[in-house]
Design a protein that fits this description.
This protein has three helices and four strands, in the order βαβαβαβ. It has 109 residues and is an alpha/beta fold. The chain has a four-stranded parallel sheet with strand order 3-2-1-4. The longest helix has 14 residues. 20% of the residues are buried.
């Protein structure tokens, strides 16, 4: 993948990886493996589910609530840390880094 990048891609430490999940702690091991090269992976889970995810192997778990609430909490945490927010579902099978010159100057309207 890196050989296809026109420039050196940003390091994983520039990104805030958030897994948005609810009622699926069985997906933790596969996701932790997939994201093993990421500096920190934060799980945003439904109400009263933190313990289940920790027992399944998630090391950083935040109670987020509903889908929109969890996504917004992840965005706020990433922005506060000065990082790019990468949000993934708990059942992703593959991730690919794509760098597009058209995206570099993107600004929220």
């Amino acid at each position: 993948m890196l050989s296809k990048c026109p420039e050196t891609p940003r390091p994983a430490s520039d990104f805030y990886f958030a897994v948005i999940s609810s009622s699926r702690p069985d997906n933790v091991p596969a996701m932790q493996k997939l994201l093993s090269s990421c500096s920190t992976v934060v799980w945003y889970v439904g109400r009263c589910q933190v313990g289940e995810y920790e027992r399944a192997g998630a090391s950083c778990v935040v109670e987020g609530g509903g889908l929109c609430s969890s996504r917004n909490m992840a965005l706020e945490a990433a922005f506060a840390a000065g990082k790019i927010c990468v949000q993934v579902s708990d059942d992703v099978h593959r991730l690919r880094y794509i760098d597009s010159p058209a995206d570099r100057n993107w600004a929220k309207p």
